[in-house]
Amino acid sequence: MKFNVLVSDDLAEEGIEILREKVMVDVQTGLSEDELVATIENYDALLVRSGTQVTERVIEAGKKLRFIGRAGAGVDNIDMKAATKRGIIVANAPEGNTLAATEHTMAMMLSLCRNTPQANASMQAGEWKRSKFMGVELNEKTLGIVGLGRIGREIAKRASSFDMKIIGYDPFITTEKAAAMGIQSMSLEELFKQADIITVHTPLIKETRHIVNSQTIKTMKDGVRIINCARGGIIDEQALADAVKSGKVAGAAIDVFESEPPKDSPLLGVPGIITTPHLGASTVEAQKNVSISVAKQCLEVLNGGSAKYV
Ligand code: NAD
Ligand code: MLT
């Protein structure tokens, strides 16, 4: 077989099988940067999820690399500048896990409003404290969605069925397009003022880093609830933890962290904050979709074609 492909994170078997029919595949997960640098030289393609940091050193060491595939949406673990400089095609699989991330966000929203994780932990510890876990309903609450892309829109659909009022902010979506999706679009400042629950669904870029911070939290409703199932860093973790502790923010649900796994995150150990370990895309269906998508794009590129999601 002509080409060698390295898979350095856990990818669903369905995509790996597609690759094995045509190319040599090695699966080596959990490699350190040094180990990856020492290994990558003989590979024509590298496939990752979010665990592997594809740094400039890794890209420079990958003398034969022609393709880097990200089995998921965000490419923030790949040094795009270094890859572009070397002419390496980087492709992702942005559609395969949209519904998984959407459903996880809805699960986090409901859990946050009904204190489900805390009540479970309490019961498992032998308690029966019904009044401690009084919740609030989604019905007639205003949901502020920041980022009206694939996931933001699917959340709008599902939240509408709970009779929530949906407001949104996205500088790249027109008011008319948002309205057609049942979303009232407005400035970020206005959204922060009006929302009972805020959920962020943007990429982590310069413009979105810490858009929820100590200053913007002050402009929000007292008792607002905040969800981040997009990327760590969109929310200033210390500011959010302080605001939950002070009671300004009634609670937060967080799936993604500035550093993963989070070692000393201020979000851990705060009773009003519920967390999951970056599980947004972790469904059998989504992992199968993204694995197949990057595998197919990898074969296309190695055989001289182009990738679908570059
Ligand atoms: P998408 O590209 O379809 O949508 C992102 C939207 O953000 C776009 O509509 C874009 O116009 C908008 N945007 C860009 N800059 C903005 C700004 N400054 N303010 C407001 N909006 C802005 O992406 P998606 O597939 O919907 O994914 C959204 C996020 O969720 C990404 O960060 C992705 O990496 C993340 N994600 C996380 C998980 C998980 O496991 N938790 C799973 C899938 C995706
Ligand atoms: C993504 O960007 O697709 C998600 O973070 C999911 C993941 O691959 O972990």
Automatic annotation (TrEMBL):
Organism field: Methanospirillum lacunae
Covered residues, full protein: 1 to 310 of 528
Organism domain of life: Archaea
Entry annotated with the keyword Nucleotide-binding: no
Keyword Kinase listed: no
Residues in the signal sequence: none
Catalysed reactions, as listed in the record: (2R)-3-phosphoglycerate + NAD(+) = 3-phosphooxypyruvate + NADH + H(+)
UniProtKB keywords: Amino-acid biosynthesis, NAD, Oxidoreductase, Serine biosynthesis
Similarity field: Belongs to the D-isomer specific 2-hydroxyacid dehydrogenase family.
Transmembrane segments: none
Protein name: D-3-phosphoglycerate dehydrogenase
Record EC number: 1.1.1.95
Gene Ontology annotations of biological process type: L-serine biosynthetic process
Molecular functions per Gene Ontology: NAD binding; phosphoglycerate dehydrogenase activity
Metabolic or biological pathway, per its Swiss-Prot or TrEMBL entry: Amino-acid biosynthesis; L-serine biosynthesis; L-serine from 3-phospho-D-glycerate: step 1/3
